[in-house]
Amino acid sequence: MKCNNCGFNNDGDNKFCINCGSELTPVSETQNLFCQNCGFENENDNRFCIKCGAKLKSQQDSKRYDDNKNSGRKKNKRNEVHNPYGKGLHKKNNADGKTLNLKPLWISAGIAAVLIIIVIANNIKNNSSPGPVEDIVETKSSNPAIESQVYAIASKFVCSCQSCNQLPLESCKCGIAVEERQFIREQLERNQKPNDIVVALANQYGWLKAAFASEYKVDKSKVWDPGQTGLKTY
C-alpha cells in the first residue's frame, strides 16, 4: 500500500508507513494531486511531491491562491483609477510647487534593503554552520534482541554522512550514524519486518552496500559505491 504522505510502498497489511510513520489510507479514499512543479501524480494527502520534492498545493490552497490573485488585480485596478499620475509613478509637490519624482528614491532604498538582507544572511550562515556532530550519546534498547537486529541491519550499510571516511554504519560514532541506527531501532520497536526496515532506511539515507543490493527492491542510486564519495551512479 502506497503511503499518502511520503509515497513509500508498504505491505498491504501495514497500518502505518515504515518510512515516515504516517497512518496508511486506502487509495480508494483519496484523490490524485498533480505536482505544479514537475506534473507528477501524487496522492491527495501528500504535502510534498514524491518525485521532485516540491511542496504540493491542494485544491483548496489553489482556490485560495486564485481568489487572492484576483482580489489583488481588482485592488490594483481601483488604485489605477484613483491615481492621477498613472501606474508605477507617484509624484508629490514640494514646498516650491515643483513636482518631485519619488520612483528613483524607492528603487535605491529597495536595492539597499536587499544588500543588507544578503549581508545579514551570510553572517548568520557563517556563524551557525555546525561541523560534523561527533560522539552523540546513543540511547539503546533494553531488549538485547532488538539491539542484535539493529546491528544486523546496520551492517548492510555504510554511514551516509560523507565526512567520516565511509565507516560501516554499525560502528561509526558520528551523529548521522546514530540517527540512522535510531531509525532502525524505532522501526523494530514498532514490530516492522527487518527486510522492510532495510528498504526504508535505504530510501531515506541511501548507502546500502552493493553486496546486498540484489536482495532488496531499492533504487540503484541508493547503493553505495566504494570508489566514489557520493552514491553510485548507473
How are the SSEs placed, and which strands pair?
Blueprint: E1 32-34, E2 41-43, H1 59-82, E3 91-93, E4 99-101, H2 103-128, H3 144-154, H4 175-189, H5 194-205
Antiparallel strand pairs: 1-2, 3-4
Helix pairs in contact: 3-4, 4-5
Summarize, please.
This protein has about 230 residues and is mostly helical. It has a domain at about 145-220: Helicase, Ruva Protein, domain 3, CATH 1.10.8.640. It has helices spanning about 60-80, 105-130, 145-155, 175-190, 195-205, and strands spanning about 30-35, 40-45, 90-95, 100.
Helix content: 25-40%
Give the number of DSSP strands: 4
How many individual helices? 5
Strand content: 5-15%
Spell out the CATH superfamily of the domain at 144-222: Cytochrome C biogenesis protein
Topology order in helix (H) and strand (E) letters:
EEHEEHHHH
Give a written overview of the molecule.
The chain is mainly alpha-helical. It has a domain at 144-222: Cytochrome C biogenesis protein (Helicase, Ruva Protein, domain 3). The protein contains five helices and four strands; from the N terminus they run ββαββαααα. The strands form two sheets. It has a two-stranded antiparallel sheet. A two-stranded antiparallel ribbon has the order 3-4. Helix 3 crosses helix 4 (175-189) and helix 4 (175-189) runs antiparallel to helix 5 (194-205). The longest helix has 26 residues, at 103-128. The chain is extended. The protein starts with 31 loop residues before the first strand and ends in a 29-residue tail after the last helix.
